[in-house]
Amino acid sequence: MRELVKKVTSKINELAKEFDELKIMHVCGSHEHTICKYGLRELLPENLLLIPGPGCPVCVTTQKEIDTAIYLSENYVITTLGDLYRVPGSEKSLFDVRAEGKDVRIVYSITDAVRMAKREKDKNFLFLAIGFETTAPTTGAELINLNIDNFFILNCHRRTPPVMEFLLEDSKIDAFICPGHVSAIIGVKPYYPLVEKYRVPMVIAGFEPMDILISIYMILKQLNENNIRVENEYDRVVKEEGNVVAQKIIEKVFTPSDKRWRGFPIIKGGGFELKEEFKKYDILEREEIPDIKEKIPKGCICDKILRGEKLPTDCKLFGKSCNPLNPVGSCMVSEEGTCRIFFKYYRGV
């Protein structure tokens, strides 16, 4: 393996000499884990920048969505995945409101939340449905088969290709390493229009160090040969057509909609909206939510980190007032968050 790594990195260094600077972005927290854990940035030439983008579903959940859940905790049992538990709202987190006595429960999946609602029919339950195309099918599958009237979701699901297009419009990205988990669901085809329109290489990558290095080599080879296209390095898992069963569930329950991401304006087609048949489970159709003004903590640059404009080490709060025990911004909370990953691997550097 060591010799193979040397061989690939040598080819990367040779191909990269043709460029003054190259910015390659990924949009996957698991990719960032691999990059940091195995020191892949340190193996690359200085003119090749690996930029973490908005690849963490917890991180891109907006402050308003957190505040909405906190507001609804007065009358609903809030069920949430553990990563979202400590994300700060404008004033407090779900962790804080649980400490105040509200019924906030950590679950492993929407299935757990539905089971609770079936057992405790005298209470209304709200599940915070977060995630990209990878988790939308599980939400959809539960709603298709749901037959109780005390269960609702706060729909925070988002679509990945539209935010990639926004980044291509808004910043100078030379190539994308496409997310493996998302691509296992959506397949290869959704990336074709982006490559055709923006003429940037896109390579779907797996999660081993060699997957990342090979995907970078494939990108450089495309650029050197001026043969820009979508390639699938992770073909042992990702198929051209993706997961058709999961796609059919998404199509039955959801329709694309415009949606704001934390750190971004409203992204056209960047979210999922429940179709009419399933809107009875949408908490926003049932409850009127007051307009709660967002309060971004002074000094927090999560917005710039999510857009790939800054790294966590550029933040004055990083590793000091903002740390995993006291997260100031959303990027420090989740195991998939860029700041949390950098704290784990780079805080002493």
TrEMBL record:
GO terms for biological process: protein maturation. It comes from the Archaea. The keyword tRNA processing does not apply. Keywords: Iron, Metal-binding. Transmembrane segments: none annotated. It comes from Methanocaldococcus infernus (strain DSM 11812 / JCM 15783 / ME). Coiled coil: none annotated. Belongs to the HypD family. This is Hydrogenase expression/formation protein HypD. GO terms for molecular function: 4 iron, 4 sulfur cluster binding; carbon monoxide binding; iron ion binding.
